[in-house]
Amino acid sequence: MINPFYRSIFTTITRIIIPGVLFCSVAACKNDPKEIQSLTGKRNNHEDRAEDITGIYSKNSKVKARLFAHEYIKNDAARPAYTDLNTKIKVEFYSDSGVLNNTITADSCRGYDQTGNILMWGHVQIVTSKGEQLNTEELVWSNETAKIFTEKPVTIMTGGDVLHGNGLEANQDFTWYQITNPKGSVSVKKGEMPTD
Questions:
Q1: How high is the pLDDT of residue 90?
Q2: CB 119 within 8 A of CB 143
Q3: What is the pLDDT of residue 48?
Q4: Whole-structure pTM over 0.85, yes or no?
Q5: Which end of the chain is more exposed for a tag (fewer CB within 10 A), N or C?
Q6: Distance between CA atoms of 153 and 138, rounded to whole angstroms?
Q7: Contact 179, 155 (CB under 8 A)
Q8: Are 148 and 172 in contact (CB under 8 A)?
Q9: Is 142 left (phi over 0), alpha (psi -120 to 50) or beta?
Q10: For the ranges 24-38, 87-101, 130-144, 176-190, which has the lowest average pLDDT?
């Protein structure tokens, strides 16, 4: 058993020395912001990140779309909140019977969580199951109207025909589209020409 005299001395020394040591340690601990930034990088702490992702969207137990991207960034703290997919993305859309309908590829894509709208840019290409192909530099999908559109130059290849124009509006499955300011030639079978 410890003598009460030594216990009081030990308690007094402990009360003086431990806080002093802690104070000196905290005072000596100094973080250089540049050093911290070099260790952690310049990434935003509010971002969720992933690489080489595959996403599957299903409805009523049927796969409706598959998404592939090399870089995924989600930022819920941004106003408006967004999700970015970068470095060559690919989206495949399927029918209810599991047949591949359309494929969309692009360099990058940003989805806005609140509205559901999606912006794609950089070598955007849509290829349909019929072999039709659309090329443009930017494409917007509106969640509210379920339509895609662009004001950028577009090229559409259907069979042997190549259509060019500035701007496009289409339904989301690309079975209907309208080119704004079209240019190009379309082959028409004999007897299909309108007569006045």
A1: 92
A2: no
A3: 86
A4: no
A5: C
A6: 9
A7: no
A8: yes
A9: beta
A10: 24-38
Distances, alpha carbon 69 to alpha carbons 35, 46, 123, in Å? 32, 20, 15
Token readout for 88 is 């060559």
| CA pair distance 51, 56, nearest whole angstrom | 16
What are the φ/ψ torsions at residue 119 (nearest 5 degrees)? -115, 125
Give SS3 for 181: coil
Q: For the CA atoms of 102, 85, 144, 128, what is the dihedral angle to 10 degrees?
A: -10
The string of DSSP codes covering 52-83 is: EEEEEEEETTEEEEEEEEEEEEEESSSSS-EE
- Which residue in the block uniquely carries the two structure tokens 């309208």? 178
Q: Is the backbone peptide bond immediately before 33 cis, with ω within 30 degrees of 0?
A: no
For 113, the token pair is 């969580």
**pLDDT confidence of 131, banded at 50, 70, 90?**
confident
* Residue 84, strand partner residues: 73, 110
Rounded Cα distance, 185 and 159, in Å: 12
- Which position has the token pair 């859309």? 93
Could you tell me the two tokens for 82?
């967004």
Helix (H) or strand (E) holding 13: helix 4-28
Beta bridge partners of 153: 166
Could you tell me which of 139, 146, 150 has the C-alpha nearest to residue 175?
Answer: 146
Is the pLDDT reported for residue 114 higher than 80? Answer: yes
